[in-house]
Amino acid sequence: MTSLLPRRRTLWIIFLLAPATITMTVFVVWPLLSALRLSFYSFNGLKPAGFVGLENFRQVLFESPYSDWTYNAFFHNVIVFVALMVFENGTAFLLAFALLKTLPGHRVHQVIVFLPVVLSAVIVGFLWKLLLHPLFGLVNQTLALVGVPPHAWLGDESTALGSIILANVWHWVGFPTLVLLAGMQRISKEILEAARLDGAGDGVLLRQIIWPLIAPSVTIVCILTFIGSFNWFELPYIMAGLTGSPGGSTDVLGLYFYRTAFGSVTSGIQDFGQGSALAVLMFIFIAGVTTVALRILRRREIEV
Q1: Taking the model in full, what pTM does it have?
Q2: CA atoms of 203 and 211, how far apart (whole Å)
Q3: Which of 81, 168, 211, 263 is the most interior residue, by most CB within 10 Å?
Q4: Is residue 187 part of a domain?
Q5: Domain that holds residue 170
Q6: What CATH number is associated with residue 236?
């Protein structure tokens, strides 16, 4: 009888893991393997026309104009990542510290800060398109009160990408705020009180005590920000369109991949082989950088 218990436990674990395993296999592993296979073929519409080896990879990386579009989109993803690290996560760090002080109504403020995160990206995109509208948008109306002339924020190449980044910061700042706040709340109150008694102000407390001690939370925030920045699709698609208008100034790898694989109304170009190659390159880049970054950030956690 006792010999049957480990077997029953194993069967029960397999039964519990089966739904998640099947879902991941069907919706994640199988599409990845299919994209890898299809990236080695040329296509006639959505039908493979012949094996071409690494030709699709060569075209998207080294043949103009495809390579120009690839590196332009990649450069914009880098800008998005840096901007979100500085503005979104920097703001989240300060908000988390403010919420840590448990000022009156701090629990309500936690809900308010996190509330935009639960909104759909579609809703956020259309909301900010209305706010940034050049004629009746609230942003231009507010700036007009101080004498600033109206501006087409999403129609100007110099401000379009920044405007979408601003919308993304508003949408997601609540998530890193709560992650960092959770890390701060794990710090012993005795440590913080001792630092206060030694005369440490907020700046010293943040730089020399809190920042090193929340290293695990910082690791989570940095990795998720990187992955999200290079998988960016919903907001630029909703706010600027599939072609990354105006003039490709908001084009990112997600848009370029989708446009290449499935075509668009304006370009009419569709090459599922090149699109699959782009998807594979994006996966390799994100997975590789994430692996290296995790090793570096984990090492920092141990050192502190």
Answers
A1: 0.89
A2: 11
A3: 168
A4: yes
A5: 56-303
A6: 1.10.3720.10
